Amino acid sequence: MSMGTALRMIFLVVFIGWLMVWVLLPTTIYTQAWTPKLNCKLNSTYFGEQGTNLLLFSFPMMFIAALGCVYLHVQQESKKINSKSVVKSHRLAFSKRPLLVMAPLGIVTAMELAFAFMFIALLIWSLFNYIHYYTFNHPFVHKAGEKLWQTRLRSVSFILGYVGNICWAFLFFPVSRGSSILPLAGLTSESSIKYHIWLGHLSMILFAAHTIGFIIYWGTTHQMAEMLEWRKDWVPNVAGEIAFVFAMGMWVTSFPRVRRKMFEVFFYTHHLYGFYIFFYVLHVGAAYFCMILPGIYLFFVDRFLRFLQSRRRARLVSARILPCDTVELNFSKSPGLIYNPTSMLFLNVPSISKLQWHPFTITSSNMEPDRLSIVIKSEGSWSQKLYQELSSSVDYLNVSVEGPYGPTSSHFLRHESLVMVSGGSGITPFISIIREIIFRSQSEELDVPRVLLICAFKNVADLTMLNLLLPISDTHTQISKMQLQIEAYVTRENEQTFTDSQKHLQTIWFKSDPFDSPISAALGPNNWLWLGAIISSSFVMFLLILGIFTRYYIFPIEQETYEPYHFTLRALWDIFLVCTCIFIASSAIFLWCKKQYAKEYERILNLEAPTPPTSPWSQFYVADRELESLPHQSLVQATKVHFGAKPDLKEILPRCEGSDIGVLVCGPRTMRHEVAKICSSGLADNLHFESISFNW
């Protein structure tokens, strides 16, 4: 058994054990058998009532996250050594086949549906077991003057809050972009953002029922003063109400109709999550905070590292302006930076907005030695301002980035053939895949898949996006060595428009700045290893400080007053210690890595950049020689343009020849759903759907 297999088995065993704790939590096995024994050993003067929850709920996932970083580092290093080998495995292929395609949920695979049913079963199991426990084993006290239905309403509302905590335990894993948890499951934050949305809706429904239930109970029992109560020894109701107000603001603006029409409202409102978490923890207390701690902890680590990375200004080398209101930005990158096709980069341009960050697909191949490219289509207000700024006389642009984030493997290479279907700017993920295959095809030792690109554009000018299939840095790439066929469809214009509106690409070269740095991982080439060091060291530091603080500060106060320590203050101390330990460990390791690789970054920036022509229009020049080069001739020969029609996917896809065809789609929802339905229909067993879009 290899080390990788052994580690995967450890991860699986620990994760299943962690899930079993959640399953047994509402049962008498946990409350009457486990808890008393563990309380004697763990609820000591060093950890108080948090000891049991830290061991059973926090430690397993933190262990997986830290050890998972080591596993991903070893996997990454082995790929460097065996870069020419591609594992062609089709295990669990059925589990990735679309099983449910519908507008509210999007494209749902068999595996996703199975896990969704299991999670719903966990919630229902917990709900009924809590009801059973609080009905027969530990019933709620029937207060004087209180009717039976009011007592039951109070107990059910209380239980709904408990069940909502289960959703919170998973809520932050999908949005931790640089965490090791998602790659271990073969996911990325972009592909799993829908899980965050599902969990968010589910938790808000439960918490809304929890809140409304208590308000009805207080109103019918004439106890509305309870809404303003902030107790010293128990749950502060005011904190829960404040948390619910922030949560409602985030929830209402996150619905698709609001988010798409008023994205900036959604974007800024969603940054209230900090206040939501703060008051939520004050409401549930330190003990329950430890139950949901892993997801929040890893999210905080990831968010702070993203903040540190974004403080560096990225070296923007050049930009290619296309006549279709599209621009390609080319950055300098560190040689140690590793990413895979379809990865994402988050971009911030302070001259347009200091707060807004927008994700864009990386279009360059990791095999391009010193360049990283992204493509931006001018569609929203932010991208339109960027396009206008680049189209003006600008010789420098201040840019910050976060990332790259994406898959840890080039899984698409395992197929014999690839069919890629795109609509409009949805072609950008496929540019990176085709560039990767072009570079791999230069080596005769590698087998690369045949590629059929079916792309639909509204206007003739959009056809110029096909020029981006070839990198700006290497015009000698032999595209003819790969089997590429492009079927381009122009839906709203005819061939006459094509002959009347031919325009050339324009290239801008930017000045360098001594404060710029090439794009690199937040913690350098050994990013996974250092991330594991941050997670493990900060969590151990948190446990040590928490134990010492509880033993020598909280415990003496409780002994002296014969009362439990202040409920809210204990939660505040936990929040403070978590943030402090993450800040210390992350800052120290980030500064150490920055110092270690400073000389390498300086050497890259001192490399001689291409010199633009010295004419009055030196910032702009037409790349005629690029259009006349051999690679572009091969690209034109591989392309067939259809005017005034949309691709008939129901006819094209089943006709594709080959025993193993990977089908990828990126574009409008109707296009994605149509392709998913064709692949799941069973009419063509050789079609294997590959979901890459987070716009589900």
From TrEMBL:
SUPFAM superfamilies: Ferredoxin reductase-like, C-terminal NADP-linked domain, Riboflavin synthase domain-like. Its main location: membrane. GO terms for biological process: monoatomic ion transport. One of its GO terms (cellular component) is plasma membrane. It is a multi-pass membrane protein. It is an enzyme of class 1 (oxidoreductase). Keywords: Electron transport, Ion transport, Iron, Membrane, Metal-binding, Oxidoreductase, Transmembrane, Transmembrane helix, Transport. PANTHER family: FERRIC REDUCTION OXIDASE 4-RELATED (PTHR11972:SF79), NADPH OXIDASE (PTHR11972). This is ferric-chelate reductase (NADH). It comes from Castanea mollissima (Chinese chestnut). The lineage of its organism: Eukaryota, Viridiplantae, Streptophyta, Embryophyta, Tracheophyta.
